[in-house]
Amino acid sequence: MPGLTRRQQDILAFLQDCARDGHAPTLEEICRHFGLRSRGSLHKHVIALVEAGLVEPMQGRRRGVHLTDAAREGEGLPLLGRIAAGEPIEAVPGTERISVPEVLRGNSECYVLQVRGESMIDDGIHDGDWVIVEHRGHARNGELVVALIDEDAATLKRIEQRPDEVVLHPANADYAPQRYAPERVTIQGVVVGQMRRYH
Predict the structure, then answer these.
(1) Domain 6-73's class?
(2) Cys bridge to 71: 54, 83, 140, 185, which one at CB 3.0-4.6 A?
(3) Which fold has domain 77-195?
(4) What is the pLDDT of residues 60-111, one digit of tens each?
(5) What does the domain layout of the chain look like in residue ranges?
(6) Is there a catalytic annotation at residue 119?
């Protein structure tokens, strides 16, 4: 984040991780996490975060360094639900946010969906992966899209748009392409990034 030192950015990231777990760490806990011996030097960094509008003023509180709403809003993209990469299913809206590196985001508003199914594995998209989707109502042929079918269920596929039909292509030989009349398909976004957790 511009204007913050590397140490202040690290402290902010730690506070955001704690906030996602519903915890506001004390100054002592932050010192231990970063291996700092002096609370004085940490206090300078916290004051800088307060002045940047990212941390609430301490006001003499002994417990808990709390993020401001602005810092919470900046801590991730909305995780809107789970989407099947096999047969279409409904993508269930939610309120959770997930941290996404800036380099994986698109040029406009983005959101995150978690993939269910294996129909896109030949494109390197596996069950449980997260995809970052740039909100768009149009796509070029060959792009990986979130397509809403009959205004009811969403699926993740590569799109081919023809005058008389839309073909949604899987990336797995075990699955057949899905063919729809153009009026049945609404593009909800284009995939611009992907994340995976290794257990």
Answers:
(1) mainly alpha
(2) 54
(3) Umud Fragment, subunit A (2.10.109)
(4) 656 788 888 666 655 677 777 888 866 666 555 555 677 777 778 777 788 8
(5) 6-73, 77-195
(6) yes
